[in-house]
Amino acid sequence: MSVITHIEDLRVLAEKRVPRMFYDYADSGSYTESTYRANESDFQKIKLRQRVAVNMDNRSLRTTMAGIDTAMPVAIAPTGLTGMQHADGEILGALAAKKFGIPFTLSTMSICSIEDVAAATRAPFWFQLYVMKDRDFIERLIDRAKAANCSALMLTLDLQILGQRHKDIKNGLSAPPKPTLANILNLMTKPRWGLGMLGTKRRSFGNIVGHVKGVGDMSSLSSWTAEQFDPRLSWADVEWIKKRWGGKLILKGIMDAEDARLAADSGADALIVSNHGGRQLDGAPSSINALPAIVDAVGSRIEVWMDGGIRSGQDVLKAVALGARGTLIGRAFLYGLGAMGEAGVTKALELIARELEITMAFCGHTDIRTVDRRVLLPGTFPT
Fold it and tell me: Which position among 86, 166, 211, 276 bears the catalytic label?
């Protein structure tokens, strides 16, 4: 295996090792994928100001996100089907995050359950909630997150209905996956992945199967999930969830200044500027382009974070410079996981931290908390 120097190396390795249907699930957007591509490419348009002859000693990336100490302004984003990128993927991701000192977020649509991750890590993590029509299930899910000592609840607001992802349909990705000839042949070329899956009992949606009336296996799960995302989700539901939870609340999926004001009014602790990785509304702006206007609108009232397109420490620095108090990584983490399991997640975090620290120093700063728009070249960033 060649030396891994950046996230792209991990992506290439993950593409070789993860079955096509699951790799494509992680590495795709909706419809034309224009927003998915823009999330990444718009970072490249932003240029940095290099400063020289400044003291670069004692560099620090330490900060807080919603009052929680973090080794750098990065958390692991919630990603569905993570345990299909690598056996026990959510547990491995949470362990790597814990050792590195950053927050890990578990998705409602995870393979490993809340209880699995809590037992394996014995450390607080964040839980991401999708609102389903079955409110009884949602209440019990919130209570399970409380019982697992989750330190924050992340409510995703931009998946009331599903955007169409062409690759998933073509690959037959469903619950359970369709055993097409192409899928079977592809699985045969992934022996490392297959052996891992044979060695774990966690192969279905652990937060759902066995916790919903009438859903006892993968076949009954498919019809349940297709009907359950709630298109009627409103700010009244946000208030209800906030009261039921009673702890730190993070709202994910904000792309508009008007929605950001409503998020700030809700009393949440943080909001995440996010277009769901380009997987929902194709044609929406990139997250980094949407960020400055939202920071200007509500940054003094609520912590503003962002996700979407982060593939390097430089991307993190640019987001922080434009006002993000924190960032989240999804695909960069999944590439590491699919490539090398827990060690790959750790490698991804190390790559991002190292590049962030060095780039920050080149821009004349030694403390991430002092970085602002002055590290960017005027005229190259969105305002």
Answer: 276
Using a 10 angstrom Cβ sphere, with 0-12 exposed, 13-18 middle and 19 or more buried, the burial of residue 153 is: buried
* Rg, C-alpha atoms of the chain: 20
d(CA 177, CA 199): 19
- The answer to whether 113 and 139 have CB atoms below 8 angstroms apart is no
First to last CA, the chain: 42
Q: Give mean pLDDT, residues 78-103.
A: 97
Q: Which residue has the tokens 């607080």?
A: 124
* Fold category of 7-44+64-360 in CATH: TIM Barrel (3.20.20)
Reading the block at residue 207, the tokens are: 């937060």
User: What's the CA dihedral at 86, 90, 94, 100 to 10 degrees?
Assistant: 30
- CA 165 vs. chain centroid, Å, equals 18
pLDDT at residue 344, rounded to an integer:
98
Q: Answer with the residue of higher pLDDT: 253 or 222.
A: 253
Tokens encoding 99: 């050792």
Q: What is the per-residue pLDDT across 224-263, written as a single tens digit (0 to 9) for each? A: 777 888 999 999 999 999 999 999 999 999 999 999 999 9
**What are the tens digits of pLDDT across the range 150-199?**
999 999 999 988 899 999 888 888 666 677 888 889 999 999 999 999 99
Q: Is 6 assigned a catalytic role?
A: no
Q: Report the DSSP beta bridge partners of residue 126.
A: 105, 152
